[in-house]
Amino acid sequence: MKQCYNWENNILDFIDINSNRYLLSFKGNKTVVQGKSGTGKTLICTMLTNIIDDDNVILRPYSADNIFIASKKDVDKVFEQSKKLIIIDRAEFILNQQLVTFINQDRINRYLIFSRKPIGLAVSPNYFATLYNNNGCLQLNYEFDEVGWN
After folding, report:
1. How many angstroms separate the CA atoms of 49 and 53, rounded?
2. pLDDT, tens digit, for every residue of 78-109?
3. pLDDT higher for 53 or 4?
4. Average pLDDT taken over every residue of the chain
5. Cβ(149)–Cβ(125) below 8 Å
6. What is residue 127's predicted lDDT score, i.e. its pLDDT?
7. Mean pLDDT, residues 114-129 taken together
8. CA within 13 Å, CB half, 112
9. How many other β-carbons are positioned within 10 Å of the β-carbon of residue 39?
């Protein structure tokens, strides 16, 4: 069974039940994806949740055991994760100052954070991205790639 998220390459890569591909290549440990409604942020979370919740282990093509999707009801479990890609959708409604401080200091996990507005994370402009559809494949578009902005 293939992992949706490859820790070594820092790439999220899977195909959903509708044959849509998601290929997100991350630059660092924290990626913030901003964008308007309908760009695919929540769709990624929904598709990964379907993979995580799929009880048919034999026929399931992907494993997402190294991914944690934080929702409003279980966001406190972020503190318990270890060596996971933590995905936070609608971060502007979920994150509080304690979580922002934790994420800024966390060196064990990686983060994919979806937000429609700035949320106070200490992230270089190099790690802000938007989603775009490249011939049926949802990918990240980083706005900056400046040397020295880490």
Report:
1. 6
2. 999 999 999 999 999 999 999 999 999 999 99
3. 4
4. 90
5. yes
6. 92
7. 86
8. 25
9. 18
CB atoms within 10 A of CB 147: 6
Taking CB atoms within 8 Å and a gap of at least 24, the contacts of 139-146 are: 139/23, 139/24, 139/25, 140/24, 140/25, 140/26, 140/31, 140/33, 142/27
CA distance 14 to 62: 8
Q: How many residues does the chain have?
A: 150
**What pLDDT digit, counting tens, does each position of 38-66 carry?**
778 899 999 999 888 877 656 678 889 99
Secondary structure (H, E, C), the chain: CEECEECCCCEEEEECCCCCEEEEECCCCEEEEECCCCCCHHHHHHHHHHHHHCCCCCCCCEECCCEEEECCCCHHHHHHCCCCEEEECCHHHHCCHHHHHHHHHCCCCEEEEEECCCCCCCCCHHHEEEEEEECCEEEEEECCCCCCCC
